[in-house]
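Design job #97: recover the sequence.
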C-alpha cells in the first residue's frame, strides 16, 4: 500500500498523524456508543447482571467497529454492487433507538430487541435498494420533526439518571443532583470555552471528572472490574433472539427513518470534506451495508447502529478523509470491546454522572431536529405538521393510561415511544395536506435537478 496524505481517501498516512486523528474520533463517540447499552441494561426488569452488562457494552463496541470498517472498505466493489459506502463515515450505537428499546426491554427483554434489530436491518436493506424512490417521503421537515421528537423523548431518561436512576435507593438525593450538575457544568464549560481536543472530548472529560468526584461519596464499586476477564470475544446469540411482532414494527419504522437520516450524514461528509454530493450508488451501498451490519450485529448481541453525526462534523471540519485514519479509530474501538475489564469499568460510572453528561447530548439532538425543521418554510401547513406530530407523539407516550384499553401490541408500537407515532403522523400529513403554489414550484424545480443529477451520475457510472 502506497503512502498517502490524510487529506486523500486512499494510502496509508504516517503513524504520527494517523494515531492522534484516530483517537480524536474515538473520544468524540465512545461515550455515545456505550451509553445506550447501559441505559437498555437498566431498563430490563430487575436489571441485567454486571456480567451481562459488560457483554452488552462489549458487543456495542465490537459491532460499531465492524460496521465502520464495512462502510470504509466495502465488500464487492469490483462487482458493481458494493456493500458499504466507501465514504469516511463512523458508525456507532444510536440514541434514536433508545426510547423504543427501553420499552421493549421492560416488556419483553433483550432477546426481543435482537429479533427486532434483524427485521430492522432487513428494512434498511430494502430502503437502500429503493432509496431513490423513497427519499421523497422524508424531506428535511419530516426528518427534522422525527429527530426533534427523539431528543424530547430522551429528556426524562437524562433527568432520571441525574437523580441517580429510578431503581436506586437514593433516587433524587442531593448527592446525585450535586454531582450531576457538576458534571453538566464541566461539559458545558468545555463546549463553550474549550478548544481542540478539550472541546471535542468534552463529554468524555466531563464523565471522567464527575467519576473522580463521585468516588469520595461512595458511588463507585470496582468489584465487577476485578471479576472481569482480560480478553473475550462477543458470543453468538448470548441474549437469544425473539421475534415479537409489535417490537419488530416499532424498530423497523425507526430503521426506515435512520436510513433516510443516513443520507444527510453521507451528504454532509461529501459536500463538506470532498466538495461533491454523494453518488446514488454510494448512498444505496451505504444503506444496504448499514442494514446488513445490523443483522449480523444482532446475532453477536450488538444494539442497533447508525451513522454518527459528531464524527461527520470532525471530518468536515478537519477535511481528513483518509479511510485508514478512520479505520484505525474502528480498530481501537474493537480492541476496547474485546477487553472485558474496560467494559466492566464503564459499568461502574454512577448514573448521576452519565445523566449530567448526556443531557447536553439529548438537547443537541433536539436542536439538530429544530434546525432541520427551520430549513423549511414555516408556513401554516408545515407548522401544523410539526406541531401535531410532536404533540400527539409526545402526548400519547406521556399519558401512560391513554391506550390501556387497547391490545398490548398497540401500546408497544404507539404508546411507549413517541417517535413511531410522530413519524407516521408527520409523513401522512405531509402527503395529505395541500401544498402552497410556491412549494409546488420549488418541488418541481428540485425534481428536475434530481433527474439531471441522476442522468449525470448514470453517465459517469457508464464511463
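Job complete. Output follows.
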Amino acid at each position: 500500500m502506497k503512502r498517502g496524505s490524510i487529506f486523500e481517501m486512499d494510502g496509508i498516512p504516517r503513524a504520527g498523524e494517523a494515531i492522534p486523528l484516530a483517537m480524536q474520533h474515538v473520544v468524540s463517540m465512545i461515550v455515545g456508543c456505550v451509553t445506550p447499552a447501559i441505559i437498555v441494561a437498566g431498563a430490563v426488569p430487575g436489571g441485567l447482571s454486571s456480567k451481562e452488562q459488560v457483554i452488552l457494552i462489549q458487543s456495542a463496541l465490537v459491532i460499531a467497529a465492524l460496521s465502520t470498517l464495512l462502510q470504509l472498505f466495502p465488500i464487492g466493489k469490483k462487482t458493481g454492487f458494493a456493500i458499504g459506502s466507501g465514504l469516511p463515515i463512523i458508525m456507532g450505537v444510536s440514541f434514536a433507538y433508545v426510547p423504543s428499546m427501553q420499552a421493549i426491554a421492560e416488556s419483553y427483554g433483550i432477546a426481543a430487541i435482537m429479533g427486532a434489530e434483524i427485521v430492522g436491518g432487513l428494512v434498511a436493506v430494502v430502503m437502500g435498494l429503493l432509496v431513490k424512490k423513497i427519499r421523497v417521503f422524508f424531506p428535511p421537515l419530516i426528518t427534522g420533526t422525527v429527530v426533534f421528537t427523539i431528543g424530547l423523548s430522551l429528556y426524562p431518561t437524562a433527568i432520571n439518571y441525574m437523580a441517580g436512576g429510578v431503581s436506586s435507593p437514593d433516587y433524587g438525593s442531593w448527592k446525585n443532583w450535586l454531582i450531576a450538575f457538576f458534571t453538566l457544568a464541566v461539559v458545558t464549560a468545555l463546549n463553550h470555552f474549550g478548544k481542540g481536543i478539550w472541546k471535542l472530548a468534552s463529554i468524555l472529560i466531563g464523565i471522567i471528572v464527575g467519576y473522580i468526584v463521585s468516588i469520595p461519596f461512595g458511588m463507585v464499586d470496582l468489584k465487577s472490574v476485578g471479576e472481569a476477564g482480560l480478553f473475550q470475544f462477543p458470543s453468538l446469540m448470548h441474549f437469544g433472539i425473539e421475534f415479537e411482532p409489535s417490537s419488530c414494527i416499532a424498530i423497523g419504522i425507526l430503521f426506515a427513518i435512520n436510513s433516510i437520516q443516513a443520507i444527510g450524514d453521507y451528504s454532509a461528509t461529501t459536500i463538506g470534506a470532498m466538495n461533491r454530493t454523494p453518488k446514488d450508488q454510494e448512498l444505496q451501498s451505504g444503506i444496504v451495508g448499514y442494514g446488513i451490519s445490523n443483522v449480523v450485529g444482532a446475532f453477536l448481541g450488538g444494539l442497533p447502529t447508525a451513522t454518527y453525526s459528531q464524527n461527520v462534523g470532525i471530518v468536515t471540519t478537519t477535511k481528513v478523509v483518509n479511510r485508514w485514519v478512520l479505520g484505525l479509530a474502528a480498530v481501537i474501538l474493537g480492541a476496547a470491546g474485546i477487553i472485558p475489564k474496560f467494559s466492566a469499568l464503564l459499568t461502574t460510572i454512577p448514573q448521576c454522572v452519565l445523566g449530567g453528561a448526556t443531557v447536553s447530548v439529548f438537547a443537541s439532538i433536539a436542536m439538530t431536529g429544530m434546525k432541520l425543521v427551520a430549513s423549511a418554510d414555516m408556513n401554516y401547513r408545515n407548522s401544523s405538521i410539526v406541531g401535531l406530530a410532536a404533540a400527539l407523539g409526545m402526548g400519547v407516550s406521556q399519558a401512560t393510561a391513554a391506550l390501556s384499553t387497547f391490545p398490548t401490541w398497540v401500546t408497544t408500537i404507539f404508546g411507549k415511544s413517541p417517535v413511531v407515532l410522530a413519524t407516521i403522523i408527520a409523513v401522512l400529513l405531509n402527503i395529505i395536506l395541500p401544498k402552497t403554489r410556491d412549494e409546488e414550484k420549488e418541488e418541481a424545480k428540485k425534481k428536475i435537478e434530481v433527474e439531471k443529477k441522476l442522468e449525470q451520475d448514470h453517465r459517469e457510472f457508464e464511463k
